[in-house]
Amino acid sequence: MTSLQSIISDHLAGAFRALELDPGYGRANLSNRPDLCEYQCNGALAAAKAAKRNPMEIAEAVAEKLAADPLFEKAEAVKPGFINLNISPGALAAHLNELARETAFGVDKPGVGKTAVIDYGGANVAKPLHVGHLRSAIIGESIKRLYAFMGYEAIGDVHLGDWGLQMGLVIEAVKDEQPDLPYFDPAYQGDYPAEPPFGIADLERIYPAASARAKEDAAFSERAHLATLKLQQGNPGYRALFNHILAVSRADLKKNYDGLNVHFELWKGESDVQELIPGMLADFDEQGIIEESEGARVIYVAKADDAKEIPPCLVQKSDGAYLYATTDLATIVEREALYHPAEIFYITDKRQSMHFEQVFRAARRAGLVPESCVLSHLGYGTMNGKDGKPFKTRDGGVLRLEYLLKEVQEAVYERMADTELPEEEKRQTAGIIGLAALKYGDLSNQATKDYVFDLERFTSFEGNTGPYLLYTAVRIRSILRKCREAGLSLGPIQPAAGPGEKALQLQLTRGGQTIEEAFREKAPHKLCQYLYELAGLFSAFYRDNHILKETDKDRQQGWISLLEEAEKTLVSFCDLLGFGIPERM
Prior knowledge:
By secondary structure, this protein is of the alpha/beta class. Among the domains are: 4-87, Gyrase A, domain 2; 115-160 and 267-377, HUPs (Rossmann fold, 3-Layer(aba) Sandwich), CATH 3.40.50.620; 165-259, no CATH class. The chain contains 20 helices and 13 strands. The mean pLDDT is 95.
């Protein structure tokens, strides 16, 4: 369905055309001064420059033509050549009623028939999730949901780090603790045990201790490197132990991601593409795109018109070892073979931006995907403490993600001390609100920028916060429930009788447009900004209009329909952000 802004632009274009001017000048924009007008067009300024005419003369002529158009309540020219527009209440109500009959806010679905792979996990096995994994999970999940909303088959891939030295460190540490396990017996012939010889608590103890030991104990470090090599060469005992590490880690990671309402369609890791690498490198050799550089093998990806230096993409070290770039290129090969994606989108720390620039250029040079396949990367900023430094625990450590979520949920629970809910429901509700507080606190910031984690502000039930939005949604649901209990029915939304009602109607017409912008710019913060404005406009409308006491039945039924649209919008947008709404608060 065509957005209201596009409809206004079409009418503007017709007016410019009637004046024998380029209709392209007739573009409407949302007014940044809603006290003056609802929409604005600046095209007369550009048209005047091109035609060597007075901009006010053009603006007045356009406004005169639009003044007779039933779409507009007001069309006026103001110096130096702006055209200010207000929509007529009747046209606005008619558009909103038509929009209410649409599914998905009337948004076109450009992704229908296409697949997008969204890579947004990046957790390492044998390690717990910590706050450093928070943003990729939260931002990635929201962007994946946007892809799905736009019609794509959206495939989220956790892309585990499971093929590096940490595997050798864990294997050697387990060997020291349990040397009699069959995995370390080269003469062992039977099936290896089905149950792992450790749990997640053991791995969380073993890995950091082994990592610290390797920095002090050169012999142990050498053993870990050798164990990693044996694993990668296919040692059967080490492979069996590796599979146990994966199974235990994945189960724990899934539990923690589930707690964040973050879900992946694929649980693949670097290990899944290792067998593809030799063939891929052989293909690169055949194409003649690999060159030697100080004993290592690289693909040069710099271009003559680069504004900054782009180093070559290193795909094999001098000792024959592969790197992250090698694995990422092989992963692109696998994704193309399995899914033929229209897009592959990566969400990582912005410090990896150069890495992905090199990988994408190497992939293009090697022809790993068709030119039509979009390869893109969103580099997010850092979550900082109030001191402006990366968020840490009080003792300076890195906080586990599950502990952070529990801390937020507990803060919400304490704020709900006076809420008259049964204890079990209060705890469940605090969990839902806490997740919204954490996610909204992150997503309401522009993804590429750093932000300060402020527990007190994020968990507040007032202001631009997740709890405030949920409170608004619960309040609307309560009003609608009372309307149903009173036997009141829905009816067509009526032309607005006051400015508060009209502002709410206008905001509801912009939901689809906001989703399209958030998707196009990969900017979930636009969804948050829209929701906050919607919540404020609903509160102002409800303060001025008494739905249950209204005696005009047509207006009363129209108001109920208006609230239905507001509730539907809040639910859908919260889902796109990755959190739900409780029944009561």
